[in-house]
Amino acid sequence: MQSFNLNETGIIIASIVIYIAFTSWLTYKLRSKTSSEFMVGGRTVPALVVGVLLMSEFIGAKSTIGVAQAAFEQGMAASWAVLSAAVAFALFGILLAKRLYSSGEFTISGAISQRFGRSTQLVVSLIMIYALLLVNLGNYVSGAASLATVLKVDLTSAAFIIAVVSTFYFAMGGFKSIAYVSMIHCLVKYVGVFVILATALALTKGVTPIVQSLPADYFTWDGKVGASTIVAFFIGNIGAIFSTQYIIQALASTKSPVAARNSTIIAAVLCIPISIALGLIGVAAKSLYPTMNSLFALPNFIQSMDVWWAAFVSVSLVASIFVGVSTVALAIASLVVKDFYKPYFNPSPEQELRTTRWLSVAIGFLPLLFVFFAPGLLKLSFFTRALRLSIAIIAVIGFYLPFFSSNRGATLGLLGAAITTTAWYLAGDPYGIDNMYVALVTPPVIIVLERLFRWRGPAIPAQSVGPASPA
Fold first, then answer.
1. Greatest mean pLDDT range, 74-83, 341-350, 398-407, 431-440
2. Which residue, of 57, 84, 161, 406, has the greatest Cβ tally within 10 A?
């Protein structure tokens, strides 16, 4: 493995700076000028653009770095972490995409409030904000590892760069800008992953030497990951995609329910090749550098490339970081404004847009306070998906089992799931039971118990809330 000299490092850094400058200029040119454009792009974004955005934001820096890291440690079975997302996107398109679009809401909490009422809406919003802050924490950790590698800076400086640039993207641009700029980010990122794969396979001289140098279980369907965890991947991705705020927000930006559904199919197709590529990159790194820090399994291959390819791949990693951080932070800001700021302050459209931008700045920098305390990326990623799974369970019950649509039951189910899932995760998943299963089981159990053993007095009725007017 080579090390770039000063001139080559300068070329890589210059390429990244030029890319950031160009996309920042484009963000400013396409910036949202109204609250509707900031939140949902004025509901005019094509299905192809949204499909690419869905894939790119769901498989951001945390997933790309995290899957390669997990494959390094546990084998090709780590690819299921992303491959399962393809199945989840397809199911979401079939079962819920059109229903959620037709609700007229652009937040998952707003859609659920139509079935369960205001108190459940607030609990959903708080849990989603908590989960998405952890998602961005993981994005910052993985992004800092990548930037530190390519820019030759420490992790603190790399994390600060991510905060500054990504906050500008979403605080200035809003959803309208992010959607279109992300097309460039995604194209660069997608090609970059396959350039890394080509480099890895060139160094190993193909797949066969990798297979010969590693334990056999690195290439079984479940590897060292285990069937239970793979099932948890599917459950977690289905739950997260069915409920995550930035997914719902992206669907709401399309032109029709059919376009919303089609965008999820596009996202599903795009997930398949990249899942296999990330797994191969991880096991190739294990074959070549078995004692290295697994966190650098993917970015480490940049050091073995021609400087111009290295510059391109470095830019692709930067693109992956910024699109992931920006969309998640925008989703958090949307929940805060829609569920807490607007109901209590009733601002004018101009005040709302101005306040949203200032809140976005705070949300963009908040993860810096915790970035060095994050655990393993893939475990953190799926813990956040477990939290969102509980919201998906409540949404499905609300849409398909109205008999159980009790405000009190849904609220208690969500609170119970947030507490038990977090406690189980912090305890290290006792008895080998993944916290995903805790998140899956807790809400329906509590809802059924609330239905069977009602407290004295009538249950709090779900508020009747009609479809909201477009943002």
1. 74-83
2. 57
The pLDDT value given to residue 74: 93
Q: How many structural domains does the chain have?
A: 1
Residue whose tokens read 């440690």: 73
Q: Would you tell me how many other CB atoms lie within 10 Å of the CB of residue 419?
A: 11
Domain membership flag for residue 458: no
323, 280, 402: which is closest to 136 by C-alpha? Answer: 323
Element (H, E) at 426: helix 407-426
State pTM to two decimals.
Answer: 0.73
Each residue's pLDDT tens digit, 280-296: 999 999 999 999 988 78
Q: d(Cα 310, Cα 45) in Å, to the nearest integer?
A: 33
**343-355: pLDDT as tens digits:** 888 888 888 888 8
So what's the pLDDT on residue 436?
Answer: 86
Question: What is the CATH number for 160?
Answer: 1.20.1730.10
pLDDT for 57 equals 67
Smallest Cα–Cα separation from 150: which of 314, 315, 323? 314
pLDDT at 305: 87
Angle between helices 47-58 and 257-288 (to 10 degrees): 30
Considering the domain boundaries, does residue 422 fall inside one? no
Nearest to 192 by CA among 12, 72, 315, 52: 315
Share of the chain above pLDDT 90, in %: 19
Burial class (CB in 10 A: 0-12, 13-18, 19+), 175: buried
Range of the domain at 288: 6-340+347-373
CB-CB contact of 96 with 104 (8 Å):
no
pLDDT score of 470: 40
In order, the DSSP letters of 237-276 are HHHHHHH-HHHHHHHHTSSSHHHHHHHHHHHHHHHHHHHH
Write the CB contacts of 32 (distance below 8 Å, at least 6 apart in sequence). Answer: 38, 41, 173, 174, 175, 176, 177, 353
Closest CA to 236 of 20, 87, 423: 87
Percent helix, strand, coil in the chain, to 5, is 80, 0, 20
Using 50, 70 and 90 to split pLDDT, how confident is the model at 465? very low
